[in-house]
Amino acid sequence: MLEGQKKMSTWFYALLSLPATAMGFGLSVQISALSWILSTKYGLSIGDIGIVWAAGPIAGIIAQPIVGLVSDKLWFMGGRRRPWIVLGGVLTGLMLLALPNLEIVQKILGMEGPAGLLPIAVCVALTLDLSINVSFNPTRSLVADCTTQEQRSKGYTWMQTVSGTFGVLAYLVAVIWGNEALIYVGMVIAVLFTVCPIFFIEEPRELKVEDNSSSAKKSNEGVSFKDINNAILPLYGFLLYGVWVIVAKLSGVNVEGFHEYMGLNTMEWICIIIEVVALLLVLSNALKADEDTHEFQKILLAHSFTWWGVQTMNIYMFFYVSTVITGLAEDSMQTVNSMAFLVRDLIGAILPVLVLNEIAKRKGMTHTHTGAILAMALGYAIIYFFGANIYTFFVALVIVGIGWASLVSLPFAIMSSRVNQTRMGLYMGIFNLSVVLPQLVASFKMGEVVDAAADKSIIFAICAICLLISGVLWIFVKEKK
């Protein structure tokens, strides 16, 4: 074990953050470049781009919990998280290399022509997103494995500071040299930051339980289907929608043929009703879940609405920039789009260690995160009402960055204090469902809404409403004593 790990020195926290940084950089490349390259270079429509974005989360729904569960038990290459981090980093690098070279892939596979482009784009995006998701789980679990509960807030805020700093670098590369250069830089970082640092971090051979909570008392017991089913109760509506829309798309069912009311078909109304019922059951604890399970349910519920809003921005921001902001030349739209994410991620890199960690020590992690999410809702609302002015747009993005800084750091520390420490990978995978399932809603239904809307400002109306709901739901989450 390195001396820095024994003393838990600051540089070790930075080293521990590098694998997550690699995946975060890959995600930044995906956010900044995927919609742009598919729209401008390959000519895909908004609807097709939504399908491409949905491919990864569809696979992640199954892969994340499975990888988490296996990594909790498997010991290989000197670690339980290490093999998955190396595999995910290498695959991410390869898919980033393929992204700007889809025509070459088409020729190799003999699928030339516009008809063959969409399935190849879906396969590349699916593998890219799945690789990032599969590796993100172990990289985040690694932080929890190598820290105590007292150190965890610092561990995750450092993770976001290092990751966020490189995220800012990603958008700077895009602004200065363009998105294609960013993709190639992302390929190098994805491989180097996963393969190299992980061999200098010693994982604990045995995961220890540190407290006497209800989850800790189950440390020697297996996780049953009932436990998992209880945990994902808040996501029932999202899960049903995801399954239904996947089946409908793959089978070619004409969803427009379903009875519609107020722009929503019958199945979508059923999903909404189920989600509302699940929300009421969770908040009232009608099923009498134990304290930790109940709080985990509330965390999933609040987190899912956060990502519904955030992913709507991530996927469709380019269409807002290109149609709503006044006075932009066509050749400057890509730059403004990249600058927008740069500003958000710059705030996200600065705040976690310098501000959020200190506030969390005094006010508690849950209260700190709740305030940040409500600030994010305010920033989105400002963009909706006044974002056509480019200066107001960027000022509002600074406010949005407050929520982003907290979103990609504190929820992991909050969640990890409420689950069985020996099952961290599994619960981290379940926790990720509160990200990927709302992304399906953003990819499909929000894609339909944005495509049909004459005014693309509706993108940020959706963002503001989702973040406001999320902030209110976070108020119900109790601070871990």
Task: Characterise the protein shown here.
The chain has helices spanning 3-7, 10-41, 46-73, 82-98, 102-109, 114-145, 149-177, 179-195, 214-217, 225-231, 236-251, 266-284, 291-323, 333-363, 365-386, 390-407, 410-416, 424-443, 445-452, 458-475, and strands spanning 260-261, 264-265. It has 481 residues and is mostly helical. Strands 1-2 form a two-stranded antiparallel ribbon. The two termini are 31 Å apart. The model has no long low-confidence stretch (mean pLDDT 84).
β-strand amount? under 5%
Oligomer: single chain
Largest sheet: 2 strands, antiparallel
Q: How many DSSP E strands?
A: 2
Q: Encode the helix/strand succession as letters.
A: HHHHHHHHHHHEEHHHHHHHHH
Rg over CA atoms: 21 Å
N-C termini distance: 31 Å
Unreliable sequence segments = none
Count of helices? Answer: 20
| Morphology | globular
Task: Record the strand order, biggest sheet.
Answer: 1-2
Given helix and strand content, the structural type is mainly alpha
Task: Look at the structure and give the mean pLDDT.
Answer: 84
Helical residues, percent: over 70%
